[in-house]
Amino acid sequence: MSETHDPSAGNPLEGLAPHHEAEEPPARRRVIGTPSPTPAAVDNRVAAPEESPDYLPTDPSDIVSAKNAERVAALCFLVAFAAGVCFLIAYIGLEVGPYNSGNSVIAALRSNYALGSSLGLALLALGTGSMIWVRHLTPNIEIEEHRHVLKSEPEDRAAFKKDFSTGAAITGITKRPLLRRTMLLATAPLALAPLWLLRDLGPLPGTSLRHTVWKAGTRAVTLGGLRPLTPADMGTAGSMITVIPEGYQDDDDALAKAGVIIIKFAPGELHVPTIFDGKTQLYGMNWTVDSTIVAYSKICTHVGCPVALYEQTTHHILCPCHQSTFDASNGANVVFGPAARALPQLPLGTNAEGYLVALSDFTQPVGPSFWERG
Amino acid sequence: MSSIIARRRRPAAGYAAVAGGLVVAGVLYGTLSGGGASAASNQSNTDIAQGKSLFNASCSSCHGLGAQGTAQAPSLIGAGAAAVDFQMSTGRMPAKESGAENDRKPTDFTQQQIYDISGYIQSLGGGPTIPDSSQVSTNGANTALGYELFSTNCSQCHGFAGAGGALTYGKNAPSLNAATPTQIYEAMLTGPEAMPVFGDGTVTPAEKKDIIAYVIDTRNEANPGGFSLGRTGTITEGAVAWLGGLGFLVVIAMWLTAKRRDPVIGMPDSDHGDAQ
User: Residues 239 to 258 of B: which have CB under 8 A from any A CB?
Assistant: First the structure.
């Protein structure tokens, strides 16, 4: 059986991969990328293949196509080399940033193209070449590798047990309760420290989820122009605009919850429902201006996306994230989608100068439900 | 002439030549095609009587002989010239059929005819008027503020790049890529179909210019990923990433793990002895 794999037998690839065992002792040879040869190699499959009965064959099964595969793999490596050089050149040569004289966006765009495509090509070509090497230039051998029992041998376990008891006896941990207890005490603060460290990750939200920065008299100003609005500014029916509380345009934390849309209706189109929860009137107060202008929270009650797809023909407010649909003419009740509650209505009025102002904060939490909301 | 020859090698000469060529081509196209906002149509020449007869011929079957509206179509009294100009210049009116949404299509009317009908509707009950060229000019507009206003008030329906998007029950917010500055202005002013009105009180004329400048600018922006993918955002980008990217990885994985076709080399007997 062993003649088939005898390397000294006639090898058609002798010229391509010459074996120099005869001229040079194997211990002297060192090829880049291989372990340095050690005289007393433990793995005799590497050190002395011809003497071992279980050496692995080194020639590919299909010797004819191996030559072509070798060229293709080498080409892949050359491509990877070229692409890697291109990556370095692109990284050094293509400057991005505000000091760039041209359009910094375009400069970043070009840099991204060059870096991404060159690095991607380099890695892809390297991997492809390696795979061609493995698949076409190595022999196709099935190798079995058996699993071992993970449990240690009985003698090892017995030895560990013995060492452990010996160590315990030497330290006297059972005989010196003072040391044992003080040492345990010493570790207690460190063990409990994460409780305080985790607590400092941020203050608990407290009641902040229930309130926004809107309060009685806060003027509604347009987002972007920051102009206060009068009822006349709302113009004709079907008009809609996003507003924020005046003075908070740079406070992102406040704006995250305080966004409001103001919608103008034609007379008679706006039906404000009167909803009682026991004795408390939830909404349906005189919160509109002229019975035609109404303000709703812009934060969806589902997961908090900005809802502002307002269709003036159907009076539907649509959330772009999950298609929750609210009926703006009817207290922004949910008519479709996963949202569970109507959009909270901001009590809207006018101040002495005639500008649209909040009459109070929202009377219920805006945005998505949360655990303690009840 | 000699001065031109002397300067023809300057860097600016190429740009000047291209710009000059574009101007000549534009003038020729505008003169020869005759459509669009050519010099022949003029709002000051609006013929209301002509507009009324055109209205009666083309619009009254749905909107009523006095534009008072019918069960099929709304009243146009008070709709204003801007609404008529928007609907007719974008080809949405006369409507092809009764559906959820009238889509943009080439119009069969000349701009002068549209002005005539606009003038007739304007004479009935007033309303927003057609903006003149200085109102829609983006000279000196604040594109950055336009972006802020667009992202606040427009992008939820039209998309952050103006590519449009879906609404309820078959309606949609159209792409803004084909709209002229005048049409964008008129749409904000009049709120066509399901679109809300953004009148001069909520979005001032100067802010409208800023928004138009942003929309026009965005059309010419390069696509950071190399492809626009319709500029509809995360859905198409995610689909490409998942189907294209993941598909590519799956193909690679299949190649890595594919069974080799060359015959398996048997191991020496001693190996099999070890395995037992």
Answer: 255-256
Q: Which residues from B are below 8 Å from A53, CB to CB?
A: 268, 270
Are A231 and A84 members of one domain? no
Residues of chain A scoring pLDDT < 70: 1-57, 60-62, 98-102, 272-286, 374
Locate the chain A residue with the closest alpha carbon to B264: A140
Distances (CA, A) of A241 to A76, A259, A312: 59, 11, 12
Helices (H) and strands (E) in chain A, counts: 6, 12
Residue A99 makes CB contacts below 8 A (sequence gap 6+) with none
pLDDT per residue as tens digits for the range A186-225: 999 999 999 888 888 877 778 888 889 998 999 999 988 8
Measure the CA–CA gap between A46 and A43, rounded to whole angstroms. 6
Q: CA A225 to CA B203: how far, in whole Å?
A: 8
CATH number of the domain at A266, please.
2.102.10.10
Ordered by where they begin, the domains of chain B are 42-130 (1.10.760.10), 133-249 (1.10.760)
The answer, for A225 touching chain B at a CB cutoff of 8 Å, is: yes
Q: Which helix (H) or strand (E) holds B216?
A: helix B205-219
Domain that holds residue A295: 211-373
pTM reported for the whole predicted model: 0.68
